[in-house]
TrEMBL record:
SUPFAM superfamilies, A to Z: Arabinanase/levansucrase/invertase
Similarity comment: Belongs to the glycosyl hydrolase 68 family.
Species lineage: Bacteria, Pseudomonadati, Pseudomonadota, Alphaproteobacteria, Sphingomonadales
Gene Ontology MF terms in the entry: levansucrase activity
Record's protein name: Levansucrase
Keyword Transferase applies: yes
């Protein structure tokens, strides 16, 4: 790979579309989450980021009358922020009789990190093979948790018991230190660490090629807020790292859990972000679901609505939900974060850290798609 002059490259940005919102308009706000909406699936586990077992074309799999969902999970801690250091992927299914727990998705000791972070799962068109992509955070056995992030896949099968039979995971591609930050990150804080995580599968209907989208950080920029959306493409049996699709240098540090939904010949790229990950000099948006649209993966990408904002928490409860995932059906899933705060803060009332953290699936909603406008149905 040829070395590019840094000053020239910071202008070219490897062809990534810049996200430079000047405002966010009056995009629809997600309805207030009420006490009746906070239905915990576990007394002893918190749940957050989720993704479904999906077909190659993005449709949610229905198997044995159930949809199969993966959630990040961790024991209940007095401070829910601790969950990130203990995360395991949990498999649950949803049918007419409600939720059913199937335990940790991966057996103990199978995955190579000290924690398991978010990913995606796809049922291949043979109707049997499942590929589960996930983030390995840190390294198994490390004395203290690091924030190193690596992307792996484990192959399994879909049986009468659901997806399982996972094989030894293999790392599918690495950060290159040129387009994407490559750093062990021995320490960090939420919202400030650099990204190489959240692999999301996509089969491009126009080409038939398989891709992985992921949360990255621009290695060509030393700005502390340098998030981007990365992509890799399957070439034969090898995943090849590609140029980022979108960059948010001097705007935002984390474009989390990016994924693409193809509808009506348009490619809708979605990601989640939070107010506190915007750069101090940027026009900060609310905690919400953001996105861009293009006619193809090659772009050019255009902001949806005004500023890219698709759906946001209501101003009265700015942190009530987070980590939105748009299914192939256009249904939006997330988890209940800090709800019912009514203007209170955890800094002033630390007991709210536990009492007002949801740690469970949030109410779902549908999206309306109308070209460059995507709104809550």
């Amino acid at each position: 790979m040829s070395v590019v002059n840094p000053s020239e490259q910071s202008i070219a940005s490897f062809g990534a579309t810049p996200w430079r919102p000047a405002g966010y308009g009056q995009s629809a706000r997600i309805p207030l989450i009420e006490a009746a909406d906070v239905v915990r699936l576990f007394d002893d586990l918190d749940l957050w980021d989720c993704w479904p077992l999906a077909h190659e074309d993005g449709r949610t799999v229905e198997h044995l009358g159930r949809n199969w969902w993966f959630f990040l999970s961790a024991p209940v801690f007095p401070d829910p922020v601790e969950r990130h250091g203990h995360a395991r992927i949990r498999l649950v299914s949803l049918g007419e009789d409600g939720w059913k727990d199937h335990g940790n998705a991966f057996p103990d000791g199978l995955t190579p990190g000290s924690r398991e972070w978010a990913g995606s799962a796809v049922l291949m068109d043979d109707g049997r093979t499942v590929q589960h992509f996930f983030t390995a955070a840190g390294r198994r056995g490390e004395a203290a948790p690091t924030f190193e992030q690596r992307i792996f896949v484990s192959e399994g099968t879909l049986t009468e018991a659901g997806p399982g039979g996972w094989q030894a995971p293999r790392e599918i591609f690495e950060a290159d230190g040129l387009r994407y930050v490559l750093d062990r990150q021995d320490s960090g804080a939420p919202g400030q660490i650099k990204g190489f995580r959240d692999p999301a599968w996509l089969r491009d209907p126009a080409t038939g090629r398989a891709h992985i989208l992921f949360t990255g950080s621009a290695a060509w920029s030393d700005h502390p807020f340098n998030g981007n959306v990365g992509i890799a493409t399957l070439e034969g049996d090898t995943w090849v790292l590609g140029n980022p699709l979108v960059e948010a240098i001097d705007v935002n540090n984390e474009l989390e859990r990016p994924h693409i939904l193809v509808r009506d010949g348009l490619y809708y790229l979605f990601w989640s972000t939070q107010t506190h990950t915007f750069a101090p000099a940027a026009v900060a948006g609310p905690n919400g679901l953001y996105g861009m649209v293009a006619e193809s993966l090659a772009g050019p990408w255009r902001m949806l609505n005004e500023g890219g904002l698709v759906a946001a928490n209501p101003d009265a409860e700015a942190k009530q939900s987070y980590s939105w995932w748009v299914t192939g059906e256009g249904e939006v899933w997330s988890f209940v974060d800090y709800w019912g705060m009514a203007g209170r803060t955890v800094e002033e009332q630390p007991e709210l850290l536990r009492s007002n953290f949801g740690g469970t699936p949030a109410p779902r909603f549908m999206l309306n798609f109308d070209g460059e406008r995507v709104t809550i149905a």
